[in-house]
Design goal:
Number of domains: 2
Structural class: mainly alpha
CATH topology of the largest domain: MetI-like fold
Order of helices and strands: HHHHHHHHHHH
Number of helices: 11
Distance between the termini: 36 Å
CATH class of the largest domain: Mainly Alpha
Radius of gyration: 24 Å
Number of strands: 0
Strand content: under 5%
CATH architecture of the largest domain: Orthogonal Bundle
Helix content: over 70%
């Protein structure tokens, strides 16, 4: 059915307006974020004028410390070490948590077997296992990656179980009526439906990874942002502590944005909203 001239003209007018409105919303959001950050820096500067640098270094002192750490290579080495541990533990948590969560959500017997362990250990913080991790796995990378894995896997599992149980019963019945086997139903109906929950779980797990890496590196690491913060404490370099905290926040923000971009770019067919 052909559109009338008036309908075509309205569509041609509406599309540019919508694009212009979207661009304006993005610009407004960016402008508000920039103003908020600048306002925070100003408040920080004002407060630092009346407080000892030992307790609150100024933005300029913190920037100078960041330059100092960057020039001698400490900052880059710390960032690379922490990101490698976070990436390894987080990826391992997804690799184990996604299929386990899907199986627990889809098969009742598997859920009944593993649920007591999931419900118990997900309330025990990773920091409680730091000593055991060092004893069992040594002070090397294995113990730190294991702690980050522990901090991520339960979040992934719980989100995947929720995603499986949220699948419409009508879709499952429709697949069965069309002759799909239980395995085919799992792969073609259940798994695609859980993708939004997978992305949400991955983002939450990423946050937990950053929280855990600092604790692990403070206890047993010679490099990394957590070790940098602990070293700064020992030498009374509060500005180094601020550098470590700010870098952690920026890295976490960047990783989360990259994950959201990935979801928007490659997972549109699953109608993921991030």
């Amino acid at each position: 059915m052909n559109q009338s001239p008036s309908a075509a003209a309205n569509a041609a007018t509406t599309a540019p307006r919508a694009a212009k409105g979207a661009r304006f919303a993005e610009f407004r959001q960016a402008a508000i974020a920039i103003v908020a950050v600048l306002g925070g820096l100003i408040i920080w500067q004002v407060l630092s004028l009346n407080i000892s640098p030992l307790f609150l270094p100024s933005p300029s002192d913190t920037w100078a410390a960041a330059i100092e750490l960057a020039e001698d290579g400490t900052l880059a080495k710390s960032v690379v070490a922490s990101l490698a541990r976070i990436g390894s533990g987080w990826a391992l948590g997804i690799l184990i948590g996604v299929p386990l969560g899907i199986l627990m959500g889809h098969f009742r017997i598997i859920r009944e077997i593993f649920e007591p362990y999931i419900e118990f250990f997900r309330f025990v913080p990773p920091i409680a296992f730091i000593t055991l991790a060092v004893i069992w796995l040594g002070p090397g990378e294995e113990s730190k990656v294991a702690l980050i894995f522990y901090a991520t896997v339960f979040i992934i599992v719980v989100n995947m179980i929720a995603g499986v149980q949220a699948v419409s019963e009508l879709r499952l019945r429709a697949a069965a009526s069309l002759g799909a086997s239980p395995l085919r139903t799992l792969l073609t109906v259940v798994v695609p439906s859980t993708v939004p929950f997978m992305i949400t779980g991955a983002r939450l797990a990423m946050g937990n990874s950053f929280l855990t890496v600092v604790s692990a590196e403070i206890v047993a690491a010679q490099d990394g942002l957590g070790a940098l913060i602990w070293t700064a404490r020992n030498y009374g370099r509060t500005e180094w502590v601020f550098v470590g905290i700010i870098i952690l926040g920026l890295l976490g923000y960047t990783c989360d944005r990259l994950l959201r971009i990935f979801a928007r770019t490659f997972l549109k067919r699953y109608s993921v909203t991030v």
